[in-house]
Amino acid sequence: MKTLTSILVVILTVLIASPAVVFIFVSLTTSLAFAQVTFNPHTIEDGVQRASSVQAVDVDDDGDIDVLSTSWDGRRVAWYENDGNQNFSAYTITKTAGSASSVYAVDIDGDGDMDVLSASYRDGIIAWHENDGSQNFSSHTITTSATRALSVYAIDVDGDGDVDVLSASWGGDSLEDLGKIAWYENDGYQNFSAHTITTGGRHAYDVHAVDIDDDGDMDVLSSSSIGLRWHENDGNQNFITHTITTKGRSVYAVDIDDDGDMDVLSGHGYNYDGIACWHENDGNQNFSTHTITLVVEGGGSYVYAADVDSDGDMDVLSAFVTGGIEWYENDGNQNFSTHTITIKPYGATTVYAVDIDDDGDIDVLSSPDDTKIVWYENMLITNVETIATSIPKKFILHQNYPNPFNSFTTIIYSIPKPVRAILKVYDLLGKEIKILVNKFVEPGTHSVYFDASNLPSGMYIYKLQVGDLMEARKMLLMR
User: Fold this and answer.
1) CB atoms < 10 A from the CB of 292, how many?
2) Among 206, 179, 186, CA closest to 264
Protein backbone atom coordinates (compact mmCIF):
# COMPACT_ATOMS: atom_id res chain seq x y z
CA MET A 1 0.00 0.00 0.00
CA LYS A 2 2.93 2.37 0.76
CA THR A 3 4.33 1.75 -2.73
CA LEU A 4 1.02 2.57 -4.37
CA THR A 5 0.68 5.76 -2.31
CA SER A 6 4.14 6.91 -3.40
CA ILE A 7 3.27 6.30 -7.05
CA LEU A 8 0.10 8.36 -6.73
CA VAL A 9 2.01 11.25 -5.11
CA VAL A 10 4.49 11.30 -8.00
CA ILE A 11 1.69 11.19 -10.55
CA LEU A 12 -0.19 14.05 -8.88
CA THR A 13 2.91 16.24 -8.90
CA VAL A 14 3.35 15.89 -12.67
CA LEU A 15 -0.29 15.94 -13.84
CA ILE A 16 -0.04 19.41 -15.31
CA ALA A 17 3.27 18.82 -17.09
CA SER A 18 2.37 15.45 -18.56
CA PRO A 19 -1.20 14.82 -19.72
CA ALA A 20 -0.25 11.26 -20.61
CA VAL A 21 0.15 10.52 -16.93
CA VAL A 22 -3.56 11.11 -16.42
CA PHE A 23 -4.23 7.85 -18.23
CA ILE A 24 -1.84 6.02 -15.89
CA PHE A 25 -3.54 7.50 -12.84
CA VAL A 26 -6.99 6.40 -13.99
CA SER A 27 -5.74 2.88 -14.69
CA LEU A 28 -4.09 2.56 -11.31
CA THR A 29 -7.15 3.68 -9.41
CA THR A 30 -9.57 1.27 -11.03
CA SER A 31 -10.85 -1.15 -8.37
CA LEU A 32 -10.70 -4.94 -8.67
CA ALA A 33 -12.52 -7.16 -6.22
CA PHE A 34 -10.77 -10.43 -5.54
CA ALA A 35 -11.75 -13.16 -3.14
CA GLN A 36 -10.00 -15.13 -0.46
CA VAL A 37 -11.93 -18.29 0.31
CA THR A 38 -11.58 -20.31 3.49
CA PHE A 39 -13.98 -22.90 4.88
CA ASN A 40 -15.19 -23.47 8.42
CA PRO A 41 -16.46 -27.05 9.00
CA HIS A 42 -19.70 -27.79 10.86
CA THR A 43 -20.81 -31.33 11.63
CA ILE A 44 -24.45 -32.07 10.85
CA GLU A 45 -24.37 -35.68 12.08
CA ASP A 46 -21.64 -37.91 13.49
CA GLY A 47 -21.68 -41.69 13.64
CA VAL A 48 -23.20 -42.20 10.21
CA GLN A 49 -22.67 -45.77 9.05
CA ARG A 50 -20.69 -45.19 5.86
CA ALA A 51 -22.25 -42.08 4.36
CA SER A 52 -22.46 -42.48 0.58
CA SER A 53 -24.44 -39.55 -0.85
CA VAL A 54 -25.61 -36.06 0.11
CA GLN A 55 -27.86 -33.40 -1.37
CA ALA A 56 -29.34 -30.13 -0.11
CA VAL A 57 -32.80 -28.72 -0.80
CA ASP A 58 -35.68 -27.13 1.12
CA VAL A 59 -37.44 -30.33 2.17
CA ASP A 60 -40.02 -28.76 4.49
CA ASP A 61 -40.69 -25.64 2.40
CA ASP A 62 -39.83 -23.20 5.20
CA GLY A 63 -37.40 -21.10 3.19
CA ASP A 64 -34.07 -22.55 4.33
CA ILE A 65 -31.85 -25.31 2.98
CA ASP A 66 -32.16 -28.76 4.52
CA VAL A 67 -29.85 -31.72 3.89
CA LEU A 68 -30.37 -35.30 2.70
CA SER A 69 -28.04 -38.28 3.01
CA THR A 70 -27.75 -42.02 2.48
CA SER A 71 -25.97 -44.51 4.74
CA TRP A 72 -24.54 -47.56 2.97
CA ASP A 73 -24.10 -49.79 6.03
CA GLY A 74 -26.99 -48.28 7.96
CA ARG A 75 -29.54 -48.99 5.18
CA ARG A 76 -30.77 -45.48 5.87
CA VAL A 77 -32.03 -42.48 3.93
CA ALA A 78 -32.27 -39.41 6.15
CA TRP A 79 -33.00 -35.71 6.05
CA TYR A 80 -31.73 -33.02 8.40
CA GLU A 81 -34.02 -30.14 9.19
CA ASN A 82 -32.38 -26.71 9.22
CA ASP A 83 -33.95 -24.45 11.85
CA GLY A 84 -32.81 -21.37 9.90
CA ASN A 85 -29.70 -20.93 12.02
CA GLN A 86 -27.96 -24.03 10.67
CA ASN A 87 -28.86 -26.20 13.63
CA PHE A 88 -29.87 -29.53 12.12
CA SER A 89 -32.28 -32.17 13.44
CA ALA A 90 -32.00 -35.66 11.93
CA TYR A 91 -35.05 -37.58 10.68
CA THR A 92 -35.13 -41.01 9.08
CA ILE A 93 -36.97 -41.41 5.79
CA THR A 94 -36.34 -45.17 5.55
CA LYS A 95 -34.10 -47.76 7.19
CA THR A 96 -34.77 -50.56 4.71
CA ALA A 97 -32.60 -49.38 1.81
CA GLY A 98 -29.98 -52.14 1.50
CA SER A 99 -26.62 -50.42 0.94
CA ALA A 100 -28.25 -47.06 0.23
CA SER A 101 -26.02 -45.50 -2.41
CA SER A 102 -27.66 -42.38 -3.83
CA VAL A 103 -30.27 -39.77 -2.95
CA TYR A 104 -32.05 -37.12 -5.00
CA ALA A 105 -34.92 -34.80 -4.04
CA VAL A 106 -37.66 -33.77 -6.46
CA ASP A 107 -41.45 -33.31 -6.46
CA ILE A 108 -42.27 -36.65 -8.08
CA ASP A 109 -46.06 -36.46 -7.76
CA GLY A 110 -46.44 -32.77 -8.56
CA ASP A 111 -48.26 -31.92 -5.33
CA GLY A 112 -45.99 -29.03 -4.36
CA ASP A 113 -43.79 -30.69 -1.74
CA MET A 114 -40.39 -32.32 -1.96
CA ASP A 115 -40.25 -36.08 -2.35
CA VAL A 116 -37.07 -38.15 -2.19
CA LEU A 117 -35.56 -40.74 -4.51
CA SER A 118 -33.07 -43.38 -3.41
CA ALA A 119 -30.95 -46.12 -4.97
CA SER A 120 -29.96 -49.28 -3.09
CA TYR A 121 -26.92 -51.26 -4.16
CA ARG A 122 -27.53 -54.47 -2.24
CA ASP A 123 -31.17 -55.02 -3.14
CA GLY A 124 -31.21 -53.34 -6.57
CA ILE A 125 -34.12 -51.09 -5.70
CA ILE A 126 -34.92 -47.63 -6.99
CA ALA A 127 -37.56 -46.13 -4.72
CA TRP A 128 -39.35 -42.86 -4.21
CA HIS A 129 -40.44 -41.66 -0.81
CA GLU A 130 -43.62 -39.65 -0.88
CA ASN A 131 -43.77 -36.55 1.30
CA ASP A 132 -47.28 -35.95 2.67
CA GLY A 133 -46.52 -32.24 3.11
CA SER A 134 -45.64 -32.67 6.78
CA GLN A 135 -42.45 -34.61 6.06
CA ASN A 136 -43.94 -37.99 6.78
CA PHE A 137 -42.63 -40.25 4.03
CA SER A 138 -44.27 -43.29 2.42
CA SER A 139 -41.94 -45.49 0.37
CA HIS A 140 -42.83 -46.74 -3.13
CA THR A 141 -40.75 -49.08 -5.26
CA ILE A 142 -40.02 -48.00 -8.83
CA THR A 143 -37.96 -51.07 -9.75
CA THR A 144 -36.26 -54.06 -8.13
CA SER A 145 -34.18 -54.81 -11.24
CA ALA A 146 -31.45 -52.17 -10.97
CA THR A 147 -28.83 -54.72 -9.98
CA ARG A 148 -26.36 -53.06 -7.60
CA ALA A 149 -27.78 -49.60 -8.20
CA LEU A 150 -25.28 -46.78 -7.64
CA SER A 151 -26.92 -43.57 -8.86
CA VAL A 152 -30.36 -42.04 -9.22
CA TYR A 153 -31.49 -38.82 -10.91
CA ALA A 154 -34.81 -37.27 -11.95
CA ILE A 155 -35.93 -35.10 -14.85
CA ASP A 156 -38.73 -34.95 -17.40
CA VAL A 157 -37.10 -37.23 -19.99
CA ASP A 158 -40.02 -37.45 -22.41
CA GLY A 159 -41.24 -33.85 -22.14
CA ASP A 160 -44.77 -34.76 -21.04
CA GLY A 161 -44.81 -32.54 -17.96
CA ASP A 162 -44.14 -35.08 -15.22
CA VAL A 163 -40.94 -36.20 -13.55
CA ASP A 164 -39.25 -39.36 -14.80
CA VAL A 165 -36.40 -41.20 -13.08
CA LEU A 166 -32.93 -42.32 -14.24
CA SER A 167 -30.58 -44.86 -12.71
CA ALA A 168 -27.10 -46.31 -13.15
CA SER A 169 -26.52 -49.86 -11.93
CA TRP A 170 -23.29 -51.81 -11.55
CA GLY A 171 -24.74 -55.14 -12.69
CA GLY A 172 -24.37 -58.67 -11.40
CA ASP A 173 -21.60 -61.25 -11.41
CA SER A 174 -22.67 -62.95 -14.61
CA LEU A 175 -21.98 -61.67 -18.11
CA GLU A 176 -25.72 -61.75 -18.75
CA ASP A 177 -26.43 -59.31 -15.91
CA LEU A 178 -24.65 -56.26 -17.30
CA GLY A 179 -24.58 -52.86 -15.72
CA LYS A 180 -27.05 -50.50 -17.33
CA ILE A 181 -28.38 -46.99 -17.64
CA ALA A 182 -32.17 -46.93 -17.48
CA TRP A 183 -35.01 -44.46 -17.32
CA TYR A 184 -38.39 -45.03 -15.73
CA GLU A 185 -41.31 -43.36 -17.44
CA ASN A 186 -43.83 -41.73 -15.12
CA ASP A 187 -47.39 -41.97 -16.49
CA GLY A 188 -48.41 -38.95 -14.43
CA TYR A 189 -49.83 -41.13 -11.66
CA GLN A 190 -46.45 -42.39 -10.44
CA ASN A 191 -46.71 -45.70 -12.24
CA PHE A 192 -43.30 -46.25 -13.77
CA SER A 193 -42.35 -48.18 -16.91
CA ALA A 194 -38.70 -49.21 -17.24
CA HIS A 195 -36.70 -48.46 -20.40
CA THR A 196 -33.06 -49.37 -20.95
CA ILE A 197 -30.89 -46.65 -22.47
CA THR A 198 -27.74 -48.78 -22.71
CA THR A 199 -26.16 -51.96 -21.33
CA GLY A 200 -22.88 -51.35 -23.11
CA GLY A 201 -20.72 -51.39 -19.99
CA ARG A 202 -19.75 -54.05 -17.49
CA HIS A 203 -20.29 -51.64 -14.62
CA ALA A 204 -22.31 -48.40 -14.70
CA TYR A 205 -21.46 -45.83 -12.04
CA ASP A 206 -23.25 -42.52 -12.48
CA VAL A 207 -26.04 -40.83 -14.44
CA HIS A 208 -27.00 -37.23 -15.18
CA ALA A 209 -29.30 -35.53 -17.68
CA VAL A 210 -29.19 -32.26 -19.60
CA ASP A 211 -29.92 -31.03 -23.12
CA ILE A 212 -26.37 -31.52 -24.44
CA ASP A 213 -27.11 -30.70 -28.08
CA ASP A 214 -29.57 -27.86 -27.37
CA ASP A 215 -32.32 -29.36 -29.52
CA GLY A 216 -35.05 -29.04 -26.91
CA ASP A 217 -35.12 -32.60 -25.53
CA MET A 218 -33.35 -34.20 -22.63
CA ASP A 219 -30.18 -36.18 -23.28
CA VAL A 220 -28.48 -38.47 -20.77
CA LEU A 221 -24.89 -38.61 -19.51
CA SER A 222 -23.39 -41.73 -17.99
CA SER A 223 -20.14 -43.14 -16.67
CA SER A 224 -19.22 -46.79 -16.69
CA SER A 225 -16.27 -49.17 -16.88
CA ILE A 226 -15.93 -48.40 -20.59
CA GLY A 227 -15.95 -44.64 -20.17
CA LEU A 228 -17.91 -41.43 -20.20
CA ARG A 229 -20.74 -41.21 -22.71
CA TRP A 230 -23.71 -39.11 -23.69
CA HIS A 231 -26.91 -40.62 -25.03
CA GLU A 232 -28.62 -38.47 -27.61
CA ASN A 233 -32.40 -38.32 -27.35
CA ASP A 234 -34.00 -38.18 -30.80
CA GLY A 235 -37.11 -36.56 -29.33
CA ASN A 236 -38.95 -39.89 -29.07
CA GLN A 237 -36.71 -41.30 -26.34
CA ASN A 238 -34.66 -43.41 -28.69
CA PHE A 239 -31.11 -42.90 -27.53
CA ILE A 240 -27.97 -42.87 -29.66
CA THR A 241 -24.80 -43.40 -27.64
CA HIS A 242 -21.69 -41.24 -28.17
CA THR A 243 -18.37 -41.69 -26.37
CA ILE A 244 -16.77 -38.63 -24.76
CA THR A 245 -13.77 -40.43 -23.23
CA THR A 246 -12.85 -43.98 -22.28
CA LYS A 247 -12.48 -43.20 -18.56
CA GLY A 248 -14.89 -41.85 -15.98
CA ARG A 249 -16.29 -42.58 -12.53
CA SER A 250 -18.59 -39.61 -11.94
CA VAL A 251 -20.23 -37.20 -14.34
CA TYR A 252 -21.77 -33.71 -14.17
CA ALA A 253 -22.79 -31.22 -16.86
CA VAL A 254 -22.21 -27.46 -16.71
CA ASP A 255 -21.10 -24.68 -19.06
CA ILE A 256 -17.53 -24.40 -17.74
CA ASP A 257 -16.25 -21.92 -20.35
CA ASP A 258 -19.45 -19.86 -20.51
CA ASP A 259 -19.75 -20.13 -24.29
CA GLY A 260 -23.42 -21.11 -24.29
CA ASP A 261 -23.12 -24.89 -24.65
CA MET A 262 -22.96 -27.69 -22.12
CA ASP A 263 -19.57 -29.07 -21.18
CA VAL A 264 -19.02 -32.19 -19.10
CA LEU A 265 -17.09 -32.81 -15.88
CA SER A 266 -15.72 -36.19 -14.87
CA GLY A 267 -13.80 -37.74 -12.02
CA HIS A 268 -11.84 -40.80 -13.05
CA GLY A 269 -11.78 -42.41 -9.65
CA TYR A 270 -9.54 -44.70 -7.68
CA ASN A 271 -9.59 -47.52 -10.24
CA TYR A 272 -8.26 -45.21 -12.97
CA ASP A 273 -5.51 -42.62 -13.04
CA GLY A 274 -6.80 -40.15 -10.47
CA ILE A 275 -7.68 -37.30 -12.83
CA ALA A 276 -10.51 -34.77 -12.62
CA CYS A 277 -11.29 -33.43 -16.10
CA TRP A 278 -13.58 -31.19 -18.04
CA HIS A 279 -14.62 -32.02 -21.56
CA GLU A 280 -15.09 -28.98 -23.74
CA ASN A 281 -18.10 -29.01 -26.07
CA ASP A 282 -17.35 -27.14 -29.32
CA GLY A 283 -21.07 -26.54 -29.88
CA ASN A 284 -21.38 -29.54 -32.19
CA GLN A 285 -20.87 -32.10 -29.43
CA ASN A 286 -17.26 -32.75 -30.27
CA PHE A 287 -15.50 -32.92 -26.92
CA SER A 288 -11.90 -31.98 -26.10
CA THR A 289 -10.61 -33.28 -22.77
CA HIS A 290 -8.73 -30.97 -20.39
CA THR A 291 -7.15 -32.02 -17.10
CA ILE A 292 -8.19 -30.00 -14.07
CA THR A 293 -6.03 -31.81 -11.54
CA LEU A 294 -3.98 -34.96 -11.18
CA VAL A 295 -4.27 -36.61 -7.78
CA VAL A 296 -1.56 -39.11 -6.96
CA GLU A 297 -3.95 -41.62 -5.49
CA GLY A 298 -7.69 -41.68 -5.06
CA GLY A 299 -8.66 -39.44 -7.93
CA GLY A 300 -11.32 -36.82 -8.25
CA SER A 301 -13.87 -39.57 -7.90
CA TYR A 302 -16.89 -37.33 -7.38
CA VAL A 303 -17.24 -33.94 -9.05
CA TYR A 304 -19.53 -30.93 -8.89
CA ALA A 305 -19.40 -27.32 -10.10
CA ALA A 306 -20.30 -23.94 -8.61
CA ASP A 307 -18.93 -20.41 -8.46
CA VAL A 308 -17.12 -20.91 -5.15
CA ASP A 309 -15.31 -17.56 -5.09
CA SER A 310 -18.18 -15.47 -6.52
CA ASP A 311 -16.10 -14.10 -9.38
CA GLY A 312 -18.53 -14.96 -12.16
CA ASP A 313 -16.96 -18.11 -13.57
CA MET A 314 -17.52 -21.77 -12.81
CA ASP A 315 -15.20 -23.51 -10.38
CA VAL A 316 -15.02 -27.26 -9.78
CA LEU A 317 -15.20 -29.37 -6.62
CA SER A 318 -14.15 -32.97 -6.03
CA ALA A 319 -14.19 -35.58 -3.28
CA PHE A 320 -11.83 -38.54 -3.50
CA VAL A 321 -12.07 -41.78 -1.62
CA THR A 322 -8.57 -41.83 -0.14
CA GLY A 323 -9.61 -38.78 1.81
CA GLY A 324 -10.03 -35.15 0.89
CA ILE A 325 -12.25 -32.50 -0.62
CA GLU A 326 -10.84 -29.89 -2.96
CA TRP A 327 -12.01 -27.02 -5.11
CA TYR A 328 -10.35 -25.85 -8.29
CA GLU A 329 -10.39 -22.14 -8.93
CA ASN A 330 -11.16 -21.14 -12.51
CA ASP A 331 -9.26 -18.00 -13.54
CA GLY A 332 -11.86 -17.26 -16.23
CA ASN A 333 -9.79 -18.88 -18.95
CA GLN A 334 -10.23 -22.41 -17.61
CA ASN A 335 -6.87 -22.55 -15.92
CA PHE A 336 -7.48 -24.16 -12.54
CA SER A 337 -5.68 -23.69 -9.21
CA THR A 338 -6.12 -26.35 -6.53
CA HIS A 339 -7.36 -25.46 -3.03
CA THR A 340 -7.91 -27.96 -0.23
CA ILE A 341 -11.12 -27.76 1.77
CA THR A 342 -10.27 -30.68 4.04
CA ILE A 343 -7.90 -33.63 4.24
CA LYS A 344 -9.53 -36.51 6.06
CA PRO A 345 -9.12 -40.28 6.29
CA TYR A 346 -10.40 -42.72 3.70
CA GLY A 347 -13.99 -42.39 2.56
CA ALA A 348 -15.01 -39.06 0.98
CA THR A 349 -17.51 -40.26 -1.62
CA THR A 350 -19.74 -37.30 -2.30
CA VAL A 351 -19.66 -33.51 -2.66
CA TYR A 352 -22.37 -30.91 -3.22
CA ALA A 353 -22.43 -27.10 -3.21
CA VAL A 354 -25.21 -24.73 -2.18
CA ASP A 355 -25.67 -21.60 -0.05
CA ILE A 356 -26.66 -23.35 3.18
CA ASP A 357 -26.61 -20.34 5.48
CA ASP A 358 -28.22 -17.91 3.01
CA ASP A 359 -25.38 -15.39 3.21
CA GLY A 360 -24.87 -15.06 -0.54
CA ASP A 361 -21.87 -17.35 -1.08
CA ILE A 362 -21.52 -21.02 -1.93
CA ASP A 363 -20.99 -23.49 0.91
CA VAL A 364 -19.91 -27.11 0.47
CA LEU A 365 -21.58 -30.28 1.72
CA SER A 366 -19.87 -33.66 1.98
CA SER A 367 -19.05 -36.75 4.02
CA PRO A 368 -15.30 -36.27 4.53
CA ASP A 369 -14.51 -39.60 6.20
CA ASP A 370 -17.76 -41.55 5.58
CA THR A 371 -18.89 -41.40 9.23
CA LYS A 372 -19.96 -37.76 9.26
CA ILE A 373 -22.17 -35.38 7.34
CA VAL A 374 -20.40 -32.01 7.31
CA TRP A 375 -21.08 -28.65 5.76
CA TYR A 376 -18.21 -26.26 5.13
CA GLU A 377 -19.12 -22.64 5.63
CA ASN A 378 -17.63 -20.40 2.98
CA MET A 379 -15.90 -17.53 4.80
CA LEU A 380 -15.53 -15.51 1.60
CA ILE A 381 -13.48 -12.34 2.08
CA THR A 382 -13.49 -9.81 -0.73
CA ASN A 383 -10.55 -7.44 -0.92
CA VAL A 384 -10.01 -4.45 -3.17
CA GLU A 385 -6.87 -4.09 -5.24
CA THR A 386 -5.99 -1.19 -7.54
CA ILE A 387 -5.54 -2.54 -11.06
CA ALA A 388 -6.93 -1.76 -14.48
CA THR A 389 -8.36 -5.16 -15.34
CA SER A 390 -11.15 -5.06 -12.75
CA ILE A 391 -14.06 -4.02 -14.92
CA PRO A 392 -15.63 -6.54 -17.30
CA LYS A 393 -14.88 -5.68 -20.91
CA LYS A 394 -18.38 -6.52 -22.11
CA PHE A 395 -21.93 -7.17 -21.01
CA ILE A 396 -22.46 -10.88 -20.17
CA LEU A 397 -25.43 -12.82 -18.84
CA HIS A 398 -24.05 -16.11 -17.56
CA GLN A 399 -25.85 -19.46 -17.42
CA ASN A 400 -27.51 -20.04 -14.07
CA TYR A 401 -26.19 -22.79 -11.82
CA PRO A 402 -27.08 -25.38 -11.00
CA ASN A 403 -29.14 -26.05 -14.11
CA PRO A 404 -31.42 -27.97 -14.03
CA PHE A 405 -32.11 -26.80 -10.50
CA ASN A 406 -34.27 -27.81 -7.59
CA SER A 407 -35.96 -24.76 -6.01
CA PHE A 408 -32.87 -22.51 -5.79
CA THR A 409 -30.37 -21.30 -8.37
CA THR A 410 -27.85 -18.49 -8.88
CA ILE A 411 -27.79 -16.09 -11.82
CA ILE A 412 -24.61 -14.10 -12.55
CA TYR A 413 -24.22 -11.12 -14.85
CA SER A 414 -21.31 -8.83 -15.73
CA ILE A 415 -21.50 -5.21 -16.91
CA PRO A 416 -18.70 -2.87 -18.02
CA LYS A 417 -20.16 0.49 -16.97
CA PRO A 418 -22.63 2.05 -14.52
CA VAL A 419 -26.16 1.43 -15.78
CA ARG A 420 -29.67 0.53 -14.72
CA ALA A 421 -30.06 -3.26 -14.81
CA ILE A 422 -33.39 -5.06 -15.06
CA LEU A 423 -33.39 -8.83 -14.56
CA LYS A 424 -36.71 -10.65 -14.88
CA VAL A 425 -37.92 -14.25 -14.99
CA TYR A 426 -40.65 -15.36 -17.42
CA ASP A 427 -42.47 -18.58 -18.15
CA LEU A 428 -42.51 -19.98 -21.69
CA LEU A 429 -45.74 -18.14 -22.47
CA GLY A 430 -44.03 -14.83 -21.78
CA LYS A 431 -45.74 -14.18 -18.46
CA GLU A 432 -43.58 -12.23 -16.05
CA ILE A 433 -42.88 -14.38 -12.99
CA LYS A 434 -40.51 -12.30 -10.90
CA ILE A 435 -38.36 -9.17 -11.00
CA LEU A 436 -34.98 -10.05 -9.53
CA VAL A 437 -33.15 -6.77 -10.19
CA ASN A 438 -34.39 -3.31 -11.10
CA LYS A 439 -31.81 -0.78 -9.99
CA PHE A 440 -28.73 1.21 -10.90
CA VAL A 441 -25.67 -1.06 -10.61
CA GLU A 442 -21.95 -0.37 -10.63
CA PRO A 443 -19.54 -1.99 -13.12
CA GLY A 444 -18.50 -5.49 -12.16
CA THR A 445 -19.83 -9.02 -11.80
CA HIS A 446 -23.03 -9.47 -9.82
CA SER A 447 -24.90 -12.55 -8.59
CA VAL A 448 -28.58 -13.00 -7.77
CA TYR A 449 -30.09 -15.89 -5.83
CA PHE A 450 -33.41 -17.03 -7.33
CA ASP A 451 -35.88 -18.83 -5.07
CA ALA A 452 -38.30 -20.82 -7.23
CA SER A 453 -39.67 -22.96 -4.41
CA ASN A 454 -43.23 -21.75 -5.05
CA LEU A 455 -43.12 -22.33 -8.81
CA PRO A 456 -44.10 -25.48 -10.74
CA SER A 457 -41.52 -27.53 -12.59
CA GLY A 458 -40.75 -26.48 -16.12
CA MET A 459 -38.62 -24.32 -18.38
CA TYR A 460 -38.24 -20.63 -17.55
CA ILE A 461 -36.55 -17.69 -19.24
CA TYR A 462 -34.45 -15.11 -17.42
CA LYS A 463 -33.81 -11.87 -19.27
CA LEU A 464 -31.39 -9.06 -18.46
CA GLN A 465 -31.73 -5.57 -19.90
CA VAL A 466 -28.97 -2.99 -19.42
CA GLY A 467 -29.50 0.21 -21.35
CA ASP A 468 -30.23 -0.73 -24.97
CA LEU A 469 -28.74 -4.21 -24.61
CA MET A 470 -30.76 -7.29 -23.77
CA GLU A 471 -29.91 -10.98 -23.38
CA ALA A 472 -31.95 -14.00 -22.29
CA ARG A 473 -31.20 -17.59 -21.26
CA LYS A 474 -33.22 -20.68 -20.42
CA MET A 475 -33.24 -22.51 -17.09
CA LEU A 476 -35.00 -25.71 -16.07
CA LEU A 477 -36.74 -26.08 -12.71
CA MET A 478 -37.22 -29.66 -11.54
CA ARG A 479 -39.08 -29.98 -8.24
Assistant:
1) 24
2) 206
